[in-house]
Amino acid sequence: MSSSPAKEIAECSSLDVPNSVFGIDFSGAENAYKKIWVSKGTITSNILHIHESRRIADYMQKGNKHVSRDKCLIILKKLIAGEQHAAFGLDFPFSLPTLVLDNEDWDAFVRQFPERYKTPEQFRESCRNATQNKEFKRRTEKENKAPFCAYNLWLFKQTYFGIRDVLRPLAIGKKACILPVQSCEKGKPWVLEICPASTLKQEGVYIPYKGKTEVKQQSRSQILEYLSTRGVLVSSDVLEIAIENSEGDALDSVIAAFATYRALQEPEKLTTTRPAIYKREGYIFA
User: Fold this and answer.
1) In this structure, is residue 46 part of a structural domain?
2) Domain assignment of residue 235, yes or no
3) What would the pLDDT profile of 73-82 be if each residue is shown by its tens digit?
4) What is the pLDDT of residue 248?
5) Which of 87, 118, 102, 113 is nearest to 169 (CA)?
6) pLDDT tens across 208-246, in order?
7) CB 108: neighbour CB atoms within 10 A?
8) SS3 221
């Protein structure tokens, strides 16, 4: 039997808030080995110190960097499960709009996901059929001005592989707490959905920053400088990486870490009594 919302809030607030934070720029692309970035930081005296940012392939043993997407997602899943006192922010949709879910609860949705959706293409087609070929956003996507819905052409593979190969095994194996659809638990990593674009919009620094031009590089530097005013101290090595990475993936992982850190400042809101729809559709901690 699930606990009451009031009890869940009490549980989140009473537990020690993680002081280790990971920001994950996720990808469902075949070349995920160089597209998934992980930024790692530690909260000390209410300041987030980000001291590491690297591609998921760098978590492999030396020599084999061009690894398959499946292997990359296994590495990511193991990374999350292996951190008992950490919070992870991942930038892909954790669920679908209610119209597509047909009022099914989140646990049943993720359990049945691989059987229901055999391929990413079938997943997108099924979602579009359920919505008369329209793109319906979840409530949290509307509220946080997320660019795309979960099954948009530019996002559906991220959603598919993120739910199937990362969230589902973590949830079923009880290796992590997926918030806010699940309760906070001691001794398990907390996993939050974030969206870098939504975070930048809320902070008022949503500017184009992906590209090789000097202007885009200056924009990445400007965003990092702004984060330094919001309680984020980024090491010189990470600063250089995030500025030089023209695709913006490294910076996105830093922003994901910041969004996660910001969410931890109000642990009572990690599991919320506000609309129950977040328990089913998920929630973006922007």
Assistant:
1) yes
2) yes
3) 999 999 999 9
4) 98
5) 113
6) 999 999 999 999 999 999 999 999 999 999 999 999 999
7) 10
8) helix
